[in-house]
Amino acid sequence: MGSPGVHLREITDDNRDAVRALRVRKDQKQFVASVSKSLKEAAKTPEANPWYRAVYRGDEPVGFVMLSWRPPTGPFKGRHFLWRLLIDKRYQRRGIGQEALAQVIDLVRADGATELLTSYSPGDGEPWPFYQKLGFEPTGEIDDGEIVLRLALPAE
């Protein structure tokens, strides 16, 4: 199950450029900001409590994930919010996003969370089918034009 050797790694000076070079498909660009933009957003909004990692398969950086980790304020105050999940176009449809998310879910659950939130902009090529498959459900909330989803994390 899942891709062998998928793991999360901190972003350092050694791998930052390689991670920033990752790209989604053209038809996904409207839904997912680039890694560079994500890192800038993270730096600009410390109040969102950004937490991010590179997604690796073996020694190859293949993606990027960023959460707002229990932000002290804002609409998702105290909750874990999946802010960005990006898998390079060359590595999509191989279960890597799912595997990376499974690892994020383990970390979030270890932090005592009972849910993981995310949101997406509706449109052609939207990521809803991906999230739906993993068990996310719409909360009925709209945040900044995006549909908010929730994955319940029952205690194991």
TrEMBL record:
Residues 6-156 form the N-acetyltransferase domain. This is GNAT family N-acetyltransferase. PANTHER family: AMINOALKYLPHOSPHONATE N-ACETYLTRANSFERASE-RELATED, AMINOALKYLPHOSPHONATE N-ACETYLTRANSFERASE-RELATED-RELATED. Gene3D superfamilies: 3.40.630.30, The crystal structure of the spermine/spermidine acetyltransferase from enterococcus faecali (1.10.287.900). Keywords: Acyltransferase, Transferase. InterPro entries: Acyl_CoA_acyltransferase (IPR016181), Bact_Acetyltransf (IPR050832), GNAT_dom (IPR000182), Sper_AcTfrase_N (IPR027455). It comes from the Bacteria. It holds the Pfam family Acetyltransf_1. The keyword Oxidoreductase does not apply. The keyword Transferase applies.
